[in-house]
């Protein structure tokens, strides 16, 4: 019998693993996707756990029915040294579990945006797809990896990695969000045409940056394991 697959907590059907799933398949890594509200398997003994994005707020304990169960899973993973990758909402929830704070951002960020990278070997400057109205603070003892004018964008604490942007999205996911969340675009002062144009312009570089980020996370789970990302272009 092979090793147990990594756990992926998917909070909404329109926010899937996408490029993360492609990367995992390419690297020979099995993933078990767990929808929000379903029982979360014990993460102990898993190679890693990923928490994806959501329209929910990671600090809304009273309003998000499945938030407490996910927090228990995160705490269990941290207790048993299971590496956690948190993306957007997932990054916020991981930051909170590690002692950071989460709340409304000074302003929403939506669209393809560069970040200031303090660790370009892990987090490229992008542009990355941003789609958030909340933000985290880097947890105590964690290393800040990237930031924007609005908020912290990435941190690392031991094998755990949290990011505010969306390295996992592909063009289809972005097009779906642009079509179904016009209020998010309006709040951020952008529109669907601009976001979709960014998806075309940055497709190759976004994939390469995502592979580098995911490989860096994997390296942290395996002790300095390194793989080569696709070439930028």
What does this structure look like?
- The chain is of the alpha/beta class and 233 residues long.
- A hairpin with a 2-residue loop joins strand 9 and strand 10.
- Helix 4 (171-180) runs antiparallel to helix 6 (192-201).
- It has helices at residues 19-26, 67-79, 89-97, 171-180, 182-187, 192-201, 203-222, and strands at 6-10, 31-35, 49-51, 84-87, 102-113, 116-117, 128-136, 143-147, 152-157, 160-163.
- The N and C termini lie far apart (40 Å).
- The chain is 33% helix and 24% strand.
- Strands 2-1-3-4-10-9-8-6 form an eight-stranded mixed beta sheet, with helices on one face.
- It has one domain: 3-Layer(aba) Sandwich (Rossmann fold).
Give a concise summary:
The chain is of the alpha/beta class and 233 residues long.
Structural topology:
Blueprint: E1 6-10, H1 19-26, E2 31-35, E3 49-51, H2 67-79, E4 84-87, H3 89-97, E5 102-113, E6 116-117, E7 128-136, E8 143-147, E9 152-157, E10 160-163, H4 171-180, H5 182-187, H6 192-201, H7 203-222
Parallel strand pairs: 1-2, 1-3, 3-4, 4-10
Antiparallel strand pairs: 5-7, 6-8, 8-9, 9-10
Helix pairs in contact: 4-6
Features:
two-stranded antiparallel sheet, Rossmann fold, alpha/beta, 233 residues, disordered C terminus, 10 strands
By helix and strand content, what is the structural category? Answer: alpha/beta
Query: What is the number of beta strands?
Result: 10
Averaged pLDDT: 94
Report on the biggest sheet: 8 strands, mixed
User: What is the CATH architecture assignment?
Assistant: 3-Layer(aba) Sandwich
User: What is the top-level CATH class?
Assistant: Alpha Beta
Which outline best applies?
globular
How many separate helices? 7
What is CATH's topology name? Rossmann fold
CATH superfamily label:
Class I glutamine amidotransferase (GATase) domain
Distance between the termini: 40 Å
Kindly report the oligomeric state of this protein: single chain
| Alpha carbon gyration radius | 16 Å
Helix content: 25-40%
Q: Could you say how many structural domains there are in total?
A: 1
Strand percentage lies at 15-25%
Order of helices and strands: EHEEHEHEEEEEEHHHH
